[in-house]
Amino acid sequence: MNVLSGMVAGLRWMAVGLGAAMLVAMPPAAPPAEAQQNTGLPLPRFVSLKASRVNVRIGPSNEHAVKWIFVRAGLPVEIVQEFENWRRIRDSSGAEGWVYHGLLSGRRTALVAPWQNAEPTALYVRGDATSTVRATLAPNVVVQVRECDGQWCEVEGPSFAGFVEQAMLWGVYPDETVH
């Protein structure tokens, strides 16, 4: 090997080394735009947690670190992005992370006024503020959403059923109809 070919070989190794260093230093790339909505369902959309233990990861694979763990099935989350079998979700506090799609359910649930400190929300007999108040629900109570007409939602829980003003729920969009 002459001096020139030795220098070229050395430069190749240096380029490979620099390339590897650049790969390590670069943040992970965002999923390609065409893969962000691979189900064809609208984004964003609300779903609920199917499992009672759900790892929320920093990226869309099991190799990514766990950011936090949900420990309650039925909580509503908002899907904001899709990548293959992974869904980027947002919780009621605004925190985001990636969840495997099999841990999510299309069943609609909602949290009662999670932004309220301690003030209860009225549960009415009918979808009308002049109807009788059946009960009051504390902030963060999880309800199953049966129907919403854009103003009122018919909801139920383990020991109650009735109507709540839609604006008092996190898990349905303003003016959204749910059937």
List the helices and strands and how they pair.
Elements: H1 3-25, E1 45-49, E2 54-57, E3 66-70, E4 76-83, E5 86-90, E6 96-100, E7 104-105, E8 109-112, E9 121-124, E10 133-137, E11 142-149, E12 152-157, E13 160-165, E14 169-170, E15 177-178
Antiparallel strand pairs: 1-4, 1-7, 2-3, 4-5, 5-6, 8-11, 8-14, 9-10, 11-12, 11-15, 12-13
Describe this structure in words.
With 179 residues, this protein is mainly β. The longest helix has 23 residues, at 3-25. Mean pLDDT is 85; it is low at 1-36. It has one helix spanning 3-25; strands at 45-49, 54-57, 66-70, 76-83, 86-90, 96-100, 104-105, 109-112, 121-124, 133-137, 142-149, 152-157, 160-165, 169-170, 177-178. Strands 8, 11, 12, 13, 14 and 15 form a six-stranded antiparallel sheet that branches.
